[in-house]
Amino acid sequence: MIKAGSRVKFVSDTGVGIVRSIQGNMAYVEVEDGFEIPALISDIVEVEIEAENAAIVKIGPSDPKPSSSSAHAAHTGETPNRKQRATVRGLNNYGRVSLADDYEDDEPIDLSKFRKSFTASVAETEVDATPAAPEKAPWEVTDYLVKLIFVPVADTDKPAENADLEAWLVNDSSYTLFYNIARREQRGGGVFVRTIASGTLAADSKQQIKLYRRAELAEISTLHISLLPYKSTAFVPQAVEAFDLELHPLKFVRAASFVENDYFEAAALEFVLASSNEATDTAAPVIPARVPKPKENTVPHKPSTKDEEMVDLHAEAILDSTDGMAPGEILKAQLARFTVALDGAVKAGRQKRIVFIHGVGKGKLRYEIEKELKRNYPKLRYQDASFAEYGYGAIMVFLK
Fold it and tell me: Which of 10, 47, 84, 359 could share a disulfide with 70, CB 3.0–4.6 Å?
């Protein structure tokens, strides 16, 4: 049905236009040059979208190509009729596209083919339906790792075991850290600490604590470390740490102690001060998996003899299962086994020495064993056990 706004074409003439108004049986059609032409409704028909698309011709040259009748009219000065005006106007105003049939060998475009091709290509496109992993909220992130690292000073030709060292505190976690690092001192029969460095260390950052000259490293014995992790938002609390870190002078003169790391280009000596596993579900208790036996020691353990006894302190060697046990509970069980074995060996008096296999790990068990020996067995000597017989991760205590 033809109404105002309908796009129409003339039955007895070429060209199209838009109906601007209707009065009775007369429609006023605006053609593309802006003129309104009155026409009987019976002399015009509405242009359907499909019919109009089929009438669109290919893009042609931009120069106008008037028909012979319009060119003749322009040459003779005659006034062109409406058909001629539409033909000339279509080429001049639009340049490349015309609805007039003025070009030879022009072919209409079948848009239905393009629709089918596009639909097929979309159907063949593979869509990854895997849902993206949801990001954790700040209070759900529980990564926590703090290290003390000794790095050779830059611009030195000396090997790491002979160079001066910079002590760095590394906070490789999402927690902000209050820290205090002090040196233990004995004065007047008592034990005190003197602060070396203290402050706040932002998440995922590092801070130089002190520059140690090579002569000073021989005097380092014990550092007292205090750590308090926190976040400015809601967070899962981590343990507040306050402990002594034993720094054996031999570690600073062994080339094998300095290894590649993720924080400095140079090889460095690392000490893990605190760490935690990333919790996967904060609503449920974190149950550690069964602790596998470390494989860093490839040398078979030497069996106990009349002069020497060997005690394995690995968790799986002293416990039936570690399921449901926190790391701190496992450590207490290992220290209890150490104390019972050492007290029994001292009272029996049969062996001259006892070797405890503690493994390498993070060094926490070794640190606690040495602290126990200094505190409760000051008369007993100890040293690293023979690497040829036990590999790394063993301490030998002399009973006689």
Answer: 84
